[in-house]
Write a structure and sequence with these properties.
five-stranded mixed sheet, alpha+beta, 43% helix, 136 residues, 7 strands
Length: 136
């Protein structure tokens, strides 16, 4: 059963994987490099994930053809977007919240590798209404 504690621990482990990568490679590389590295790091940590997850967009009884893809969906409960930008912009936050809704997951995480410290300024966690109904 998915709980808030489980999601906190999962997020902690994913952020830990990002910190390990950041300590080794530092900032300034392309998003695609960090994406490949975090996939490998999650694999090494035996954390289940899917990458480049497509999501349907349904609008008034039609399915809209899109190429929307979430960078990672971890253990079917955590949407993760990888960035390598100057800052975590509000548009990235809105994008992740929409992905969480479309994927029907309770929690999301943006990781920005282009920063000095992943823990303090390179990650941001989000929850939605699904999270509210989870047990502690």
């Amino acid at each position: 059963m998915v709980t808030k504690t489980y999601l906190r621990e999962l997020t902690y482990n994913v952020v830990g994987a990002a910190i390990e990568i950041h300590k080794s490679l530092g900032p300034g590389l392309l998003e695609s490099v960090y994406h490949e590295c975090i996939k490998h790091e999650l694999f090494l940590r035996n954390i289940e994930f899917a990458t480049e997850v497509s999501m349907p967009v349904c609008y008034k009884d039609i399915v809209v053809a899109t190429t929307l893809r979430c960078d990672l969906v971890v253990e079917n409960n955590l949407a993760v977007e990888i960035k390598s930008t100057k800052a975590i912009e509000p548009i990235y936050e809105a994008q992740l919240l929409t992905y969480m809704k479309l994927l029907n997951v309770p929690q999301g995480l943006i990781i920005n590798f282009n920063c000095i410290n992943i823990f303090s300024s390179g990650q941001k966690t989000f929850v939605n209404d699904l999270y509210r109904y989870l047990e502690d």
